[in-house]
Specification:
Elements: H1 3-26, H2 39-61, H3 83-86, H4 88-105
């Protein structure tokens, strides 16, 4: 795997997480735990951005790094694919949302 195949999707995930953070802040939709007034809020917000960036990298943008490589889709037996494998990314996204909300609202003093 070349460095570009690894770094470009990683940067895309980070940029998308940064954009989501900035757009929610501009609309006033950030949870109270992400307030920039406290150091704890900055760390919570940074942790949420890192988590979201990693999930977007793995779940969305990693496939971009595989463009031009041999496909493994023809090796997958879709008839025997379990629901767990089929909906694993959905579960990861729901868990990410739960952690993001926990970071934003849990013990924030409001």
């Amino acid at each position: 795997m070349t460095l570009a195949r690894f770094l470009l999707p990683l940067l895309a995930g980070g940029a998308c997480a940064w954009w989501i953070d900035r757009s929610t802040a501009a609309r006033g939709l950030l949870p109270p735990g992400f307030a920039a007034a406290s150091p704890d809020g900055v760390l919570r917000r940074l942790a949420a951005m890192v988590l979201l960036g990693l999930v977007l990298w793995v779940g969305v943008f990693a496939a971009i790094g595989r463009i031009g490589l041999p496909s493994v889709a023809d090796q997958i037996d879709f008839a025997n694919l379990s629901p767990l494998n089929l909906f694993a990314m959905h579960a990861i996204l729901v868990a990410t949302l739960a952690v993001w909300l926990a970071l934003g609202y849990w013990r924030c003093g409001h």
